Amino acid sequence: MKPTIEDVAALAGVSRGTVSRVLNGGPVSRASAERVHAAIAETGYRAHHSARSLAGGRSGVYAAVISEPYGELFEDPTFGLLLRGISSQLTGAVHTSPDVSLSLVLITDEEERRRADRLLDPRRVDGVILLSPHVHDPILGSIDPSLPVVVCGELDEPRDLTWSVTIDDAHGGAAGARHLLQRGVRCPAIIGGPLAARGALRRVHAQQTELGDLLDPALLVHANYAASGGVEAMRELLVRDPGIDAVLCGSDRQAVGALQVLLESGRSVPDDVAIVGFDDQRFAATTSPPLTTINQPITEVGAVAARTLAAHLRGEEVSDQTLPTSLVIRSSA
Amino acid sequence: MKPTIEDVAALAGVSRGTVSRVLNGGPVSRASAERVHAAIAETGYRAHHSARSLAGGRSGVYAAVISEPYGELFEDPTFGLLLRGISSQLTGAVHTSPDVSLSLVLITDEEERRRADRLLDPRRVDGVILLSPHVHDPILGSIDPSLPVVVCGELDEPRDLTWSVTIDDAHGGAAGARHLLQRGVRCPAIIGGPLAARGALRRVHAQQTELGDLLDPALLVHANYAASGGVEAMRELLVRDPGIDAVLCGSDRQAVGALQVLLESGRSVPDDVAIVGFDDQRFAATTSPPLTTINQPITEVGAVAARTLAAHLRGEEVSDQTLPTSLVIRSSA
DNA sequence: TTGAAAGCGCTAACAA
DNA sequence: TTGTTAGCGCTTTCAA
């Protein structure tokens, strides 16, 4: 059998309680601590997770909840990046805080939703990180009120013990617009994200503000985030005004769509028309020309979410956070 | 406080042991069972996960391990699909088997690798599902020998208590070739996956066998799975023989690359040249023309992996599994 | 600073 | 078929 705390105690010549104290940072004499550490090393002792949870009341588990209809799931690289960020913050300090494990809770149908209700038990997880930034997601309301939640994205209905980690969309939108202004564009257009996406609206608003009178209101169209959205929007814009010399897009995918249309129309990018994307997805660096775009620190959002949860559980005061975006200048603008 | 098994027992007028028995499927009278169920419903009782693990020796957790260098992670939709498949099999039967939760273990650097060693403790997880089908992955060797493992993909070094769930690559390769044969192609070519990928090799081998003498050995080139690989390979093939009238690709991404080259060269698909992809990724249905390709049941691989683990833990005899691929005929061939 | 002891909520062996 | 009881391995009072 694996060594228990009792074995360690015996070997170190102290009581079980003392071993527990060095494990959890209680008051112990230097001498005892050393002998316990030696005993731990010698026995290869590792705390029994369930026993610790049962006695201590902490599970050492965070739940990462992704509620997304089948299909959408993981098409979007965002989830993977968020998970990476979270995972990077889960390693425990040597003998202070134990490692936290991440319980992945996927909700794609009713059955999984009911299972999630059972899994999201305060005795089974210490906290929840919500990865799906859905508006009106019923999941939030059904989580046990005593469970702390960090939302990666926006929070529409307030909830106790709930914090959100978001991206500064307005700042990102403004940065792109300002870059265009510096380049001296005369006739800019905007391809905004879908009207249902709050972040998209905030970006557009900031772009409008920044561009001011230079922007012809007719040259703002909304489209879905996919490349196809960019294609359609760009075609429409070109009809409305063939003289457009710059386009701010709501996503990199829209930007490639717009790029394609522009190229097909015989225009050159960025000479005839400058294009700015949004997201700084991986492929943005390899389009031709490479996309100037706005970087969103998605992985960092996940990391901050995990740290926020940890801080709260440590008893610290925590608050909502907004992470900065940054302009990445490549060749398209 | 949440109700405990003791509360349920009291309300049902039975002993704690009896409640435990109805929860775990022991011998109980019909009458007791009913009263216990009623009491559970009334109290809203839910078993304490850690307590159960500690006493029962089963954690009710499977670990999904993805060991992949930073960057590759989740670029590939495969992981998401596998996780979906696994997740779909985790719901427990009402009062027979409890829900299993999925612990996501991401390994992208040394720190995470060490943490994984600690997380993959037989007392903390009941089994492991390995999602990264890496050859020579050191992780397999470092997993506690008492922990059962199911690998989604191929297994190179045998290990006790380890099973693999794979795709029938040979069958898929043959199916594509046979389809071409039926269409009466005269001059087929093959763009194989990278030489380092075993599955790719197996597919190519099956294709060669099926095509027989019809295949000019010079018309087989290997390339990476990306679209760029398809582009380069197709260009090379066209140089070697401009008369090619069909191409079997190793991936859908390669197929779009090849498609692009073919279209640019003024050929029409499928009239001048037929193209068959592999994978049946989401976008394969929306290229123009839509791709005829080989479907791989990735989600099903995950599901089978989870079921295999569950069956083994139930004490059943389990074995390696190979899942069938299927030809999806669209317009490109 | 320490040991002793009382649980945490559950399963399983045992006797009835 | 049932109740009783002894743990599972740990944390946390409580005295000392």
TrEMBL record, chains A, B:
Database matches in Pfam families: LacI, Peripla_BP_3
Domain HTH lacI-type, chain residue ranges per copy: 3-56
Organism for this UniProt entry: Brachybacterium equifaecis
Keywords: DNA-binding, Transcription, Transcription regulation
Classification via InterPro entries: HTH_LacI, LacI/GalR-like_sensor, Lambda_DNA-bd_dom_sf, Peripla_BP_I
Keyword Transcription regulation: yes
Signal peptide, first to last residue: none
Domain of life: Bacteria
Segments forming a coiled coil: none
Listed name of the protein: LacI family transcriptional regulator
Keyword set includes Transcription regulation: yes
